[in-house]
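Posting for a labmate who doesn't have an account.
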Amino acid sequence: MTVEKNFFKEGKLDRDNLARFVKEVKKFPGLTDEDAAVLAASKLINAQPHSAMWYRIGTIRNLSGGRRMEPALDARLRQVYETMNDQKSPLSELASPVDPESNAIIEFHAATVAVKENTGKFSITVWRHGNLERQARVRVKSIDGTARRGEDYIAINEILTFEEHQKEKQVIVEIVNDNKWEANEEFFLRLSLLDSGNNVKLGRISIMEVTILDDDNPGIISFEKRGLLVKESAGSVCIPLKRSRGADGDVTVQWKTIDKSAISGRDYKGGSGEIKFKHAEVHRILEIPIINDFDPEKDECFEIELFNPTGGARIGNINRVAITIANDDDFNSVMDRLMVLTNANIDAIKVHTNTWCQQIKQAMLVNGGDVKNATNCDYVLHFFSFFWKVLFSLVPPPGIFGGWLCFFCSLICIGFMTAIIGDLATIFGCLIGLHDTITAITFVALGTSLPDTLASRMVTRGELYADGALIHITGSIAVNVLMGVGLPWFVAACYHELQGTVFNVPSGSLGFSVLMYSVAAVIAVVLIIVRRNLAVFGKAEIGGPTATRWFTVVVLVILWILYITFTWLQTYGVIEANF
């Protein structure tokens, strides 16, 4: 079951579900409240059932550099998102603080490492804690970020086997030095379980970010923030430490807790200790247990101080962090903020705007005004589609008169565009010496079906069932036929009736074309039925094993080519078929 259904049933947002979701998100180190809100908005969007029109609108926006239908996720958030949705390693496989005795917990030693481009090979530590009495296996795989496999690093996809009582395994990572200047780049290492059984769980740090940089200093160690807020019932607080301006060599730093209004042993389990940053590691997590006494009381706080660094490292400016243990009321205010942030992310990607001015403004700006997340491709597509985007932004917004004004104006625009496309296609065919029939079933059909094809692809990838993919093709064909052919014929028939004449439409090659199309359609339907019932195809109409998937593609493309070829031959008189 995906995270969407675990936390946001039917795409509805409420405080309890959001609180549970944020608690799970915080298992991934280094995520802020803003990151959690963006992830929550993405999950909500994916949890909601979407109509065929939603996917069609999304496809058109993608093809024209318009505003996205989902929140933009950077490389790190994308990896967290995919990890949370991975069927082989769902959140239920992430270990909780209460089960280390029965489970072997496997995770990276640090959440982030940074290495120089000329480092060559270096090792990453994967460690196991908890139950060490049995063998455990885990897969580690590299995933591209801004760094690309083969160009910036050598891809990794290997299985680590921990024998009984073995605590650590090393993964060798190789960086490619291309001898040219580049900005800092990153890629990711991801742990996944080979078997959800055997009492093996993934720890909090199941994703590691590897940054490629040019620096050879031991670095400066500090806390990431000066203060953190934690709910009393949270169980523990994770304090992130960072190592900046270098990551060369092994370094350590000592820490100790300092009582303020919160007292160690009564409100939290304090003490002192040492944290070790291995070579190239730039992020570590310090976890302090929180004691919930279930008594109503004011906010309490304590501090943690860093001191005595070794290995040439230095202490940074943020050498102390204040931990505030909040009561429920204060925690509710934090949840209110997260609710606002999540709703703001959802509102930013809603299908339509409320005012005409907003609609026109979004049409004139690349990516609907979200320039920060716009790509180079978005700018190119926006440039070529700018005229049409601004023109159709003049159509009234759907919020006016219940959407009816938008509907009728859109219908007029569709008729206008259909007439233009038909005339331009005829002129184009005339210029290159192509018969109208061939022009219609090739250039016009491909051009008008492109958005529907891409929208159908989005449906098959985004929905549990792919039935909605058929709506795009059948709906598009119905509109093209009824608007492009039926409406002109109807107007012509009315005109001739008023003039007392007869309106005749020569059949031409229609009969032969319909016959060839019907034969191809029957073969395609038989192929779909076969796919549904044979295990070699995955017992599904779409997807399945790679070999059979490509076999289906080849068969369908051949059918389309044969249909075009035979229709072409009949149209130009090579094949005699007068029906």
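Reply:
Got it, the structure tokens are right above this. The first helix runs from residue 3 to 7.
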